[in-house]
Design a protein that fits this description.
By secondary structure, the protein is of the alpha/beta class. It has 18 helices and 36 strands. It has 3 domains: 201 residues, Alpha/alpha barrel (Glycosyltransferase); 140 residues, Glycosyltransferase; 252 residues, Pectate Lyase C-like, CATH 2.160.20. It is globular, with a radius of gyration of 27 Å. Keywords: Aspartyl esterase, Hydrolase, Lyase, Signal.
């Protein structure tokens, strides 16, 4: 604590000098999670990275609550260099270490500076070294006397660590730095031990599993005390983070399933719907206090501290004396701590789908809030055909309807009509849950517009999510044949394979916004086409033969068309002359940002489809791409290479802006 106070004092004094802060960001956590990946290649980011490297101790961890973006004086830098060997105040509390590791990963993705990679790996080594033999983690390591030695779930410290280990042990692409196989194996072992610790610390109340405490004794595993007002108790907040982690595990063990089911029941039992936190304002409209008032049918909240034997909420000042109402404690603690939380709402929302996926029956009371339908070819579900499940879904439901499709190859033509809004079409696995049909232009033979009838899956309803599926047009290279056709707004497609040849993916709908994430999309000619505004993030776009990837028909006056961010453009070996796009209509818009572009892309990049007027009206652009196929100086003269200031507007928030804020992230 002395070190932190001194560091804070230095920052205050320093900021009053003539030296200027290097940026205007208020919070370090905001910088780490910036949407613009290319920013991490900027001089500004590199300057901050030098600070992050300085603050990292030789043991691998970082201290907490450090504004890494603040400029350092020469004397501060010398002091930090001297402190590197001390391991003083290294911790995972308040996001420390795990967030700096994420920053280094994002830096290394843009700038292959080996120091960033080494820093990340040192941080990972620190996390592995700090783990107790029983699987838990202390708040500080090396161990610091006091409550800091307890196994710490507080502020999601341990769940953050386990999420890091999960990504690395599963060898996902979340982190740009890939440790050795030996280290990956160690992270898998550490993760499993951590989950075992979680299961062992779940509190039994009169023989019934409930939730978790913010701290557990590192030896007895029982709920433990931290600061004077943080008494042994069941925690609504920390328990929510733990359950969300457990629910993210593929193929959970029976013990994990039991833990989640028990915690879900406890959350339902302990939710509070008759109170509301109300701010008290002064004459200038500034919040000066808060109080709890009684309401009817309020949005559910949970207490941060609940009695171990009765679940009754309690509150306390720094004297540690329990009070039954937040209004009964002093202003300092009442306003200086988050006593209520709505974090468990995420658990309640996601539990039914998780339960269905993991073979657990969902109670009738749960089904009143959210509908769940299971499709299984072996007869173990509600239906054997996907279309039958859609027919059985309610029209314009208030809540989401999940249609869970078990593994299998479903040879059917599927339509989600306009009235079946709020559908989640969820496959058991991307590779083994397959919807396939073989219609093509010639087979349909309904005139010049036959293409639009060739779909395997047609989404006409707004607010639909499709995930964990393969959608295939199996007609082969026989002309136009759509795999997925989307003609609706706020449609999200996540972790799917979209397979076809010509016209694989059709995107349309008046003022429609559509979002594709972590998908694999393949085809031949114009295999992503249409007039919708669509954002593709972290997708692989694969060309089967030399032709055109996109054929946008963006309406005149529309700000965005097709936007590809952090995508990878690949091809079959025989496809060596591929265009990024051509204009189906003359106001076409297509942009590639931070993408890895393979050598199959032709030097000129774009083609006008024998429409000279498109060269004046279409908007084709790239920004900060990489790979052999990224040849910005050799592109057609009427395309664009964006400036940084121009590229900054291409955020999900801007591209997909709609009447429902952030719909794509829900």
């Amino acid at each position: 604590m002395i070190l932190l106070k001194k560091a804070a004092l230095i920052v205050i004094v320093f900021s009053s000098t003539v030296l200027q802060a290097q940026n205007t960001y208020k919070r370090w956590s905001d910088i780490i999670r910036k949407n613009d990946a290319s920013w991490f290649a900027s001089d500004e980011a590199k300057k901050i990275a030098e600070n992050v490297l300085l603050y990292q101790r030789d043991i691998g961890g970082w201290p907490k609550n450090i504004p890494m973006q603040d400029e350092l004086s020469a004397s501060q830098k010398n002091k930090l260099l001297a402190e590197k060997k001390t391991a003083a105040e290294t911790t995972t509390d308040n996001g420390a270490t795990t967030q700096e590791m994420l920053f280094m990963s994002r830096m290394y993705a843009q700038v292959k500076d080996e120091r960033y990679k080494d820093s990340f790996l040192k941080g990972l080594s620190y996390l592995l070294e700090a783990q107790y033999p029983n699987g838990g983690w202390p708040q500080f390591y090396p161990l610091k006397k006091g409550y800091y030695t307890h196994i710490t779930y507080n502020d999601d410290s341990m769940t953050r660590i386990l999420n890091v280990l999960k990504e690395i042990s599963e060898e996902t692409d979340f982190y740009s730095i890939k440790p050795s196989k030996e280290i990956v194996a160690k992270t898998k072992t550490a993760f499993d031990k951590g989950i075992d610790c979680i299961l062992k610390t779940q509190y039994k109340q009169n023989g019934v599993l409930t939730g978790w405490c913010a701290q557990h004794d590192e030896v007895t595993l029982l709920p433990a005390k931290a600061r004077a007002y943080e008494l042994p108790s069941l925690s609504g907040k920390e328990s929510a983070g733990i359950v969300m982690l457990l629910m993210s595990i593929e193929k959970p063990s029976p013990e994990i399933i039991t833990a989640v089911k028990s915690a879900y029941a406890w959350f339902e039992k302990t939710k509070i719907t008759n109170i509301k936190e109300e701010p008290i304002l002064n004459d200038k409209g500034k919040t000066v206090d808060k109080r709890i008032i009684t309401v009817q049918n309020g949005s559910p909240v949970w207490a941060r501290f609940m009695e171990l034997d009765t679940n009754e909420p309690f509150f306390s000042d720094r004297d540690g004396v329990k009070k039954k109402s937040l209004n009964d404690i002093g202003s300092e603690r009442r306003n200086g701590y988050a006593w209520y939380t709505d974090d468990p709402l995420d658990v309640l929302k996601k539990y039914p789908a998780w339960a269905v996926k993991n073979g657990t029956k969902v109670s009738e009371s749960d089904k009143k809030a959210v509908d769940y339908i299971t499709v299984a070819q072996d007869g173990s579900g509600d239906f054997t055909k996907i279309q039958d499940a859609i027919y059985a879904s309610p029209a314009f439901p208030y809540e989401k309807v999940t249609i869970y499709v078990k593994n299998g190859t479903y040879n059917e033509k599927v339509r989600i009509p306009e009235w079946n809004t709020n559908v989640i079409l969820l496959g058991e696995s991307k590779e083994k849950t397959i919807i396939t049909f073989d219609d093509n232009f010639s087979k349909i033979s309904l005139g010049r517009n036959s293409t639009f009838y060739t779909y395997t899956l047609l989404v006409e309803a707004n607010d639909v999510t499709v995930s964990n599926l393969t959608i295939k047009n199996a007609s082969g290279d026989r002309g136009q044949g759509i795999a997925l056709s989307v003609t609706a707004n706020r449609v999200k497609v996540v972790n799917c394979n979209l397979l076809g040849n010509q016209d694989t993916l059709y995107l349309s709908g008046q003022n429609a916004k559509q979002y594709f994430k972590d998908c694999y999309i393949e085809g031949t000619t114009d295999f992503i086409f249409g007039g919708a505004t669509a954002l593709f993030e972290n997708c692989e776009i694969h060309s089967i033969k030399s032709s055109y990837i996109t054929a946008a028909s963006t309406p005149q006056g529309t700000e965005f068309g097709f936007v590809f961010k952090n995508c990878k453009l690949t091809a079959d070996p025989s496809a060596n002359a591929v265009y990024l796009g051509r204009p189906w209509r003359i106001y076409a818009k297509t942009v590639f940002l931070n993408c890895e572009i393979g050598k199959q892309i032709k030097l000129e990049g774009w083609e006008n489809w024998s429409k000279p007027e498109a060269e004046k009206n279409a908007f084709y652009a790239e920004y900060n791409c990489s790979g052999e196929g990224f040849q910005p100086t050799k592109r057609v003269s009427w395309s664009h290479q964006l400036k940084k200031s121009e590229a900054e507007k291409y955020t999900a928030e801007t591209i997909l802006k709609d009447t429902i804020p952030n719909w794509y992230s829900k």
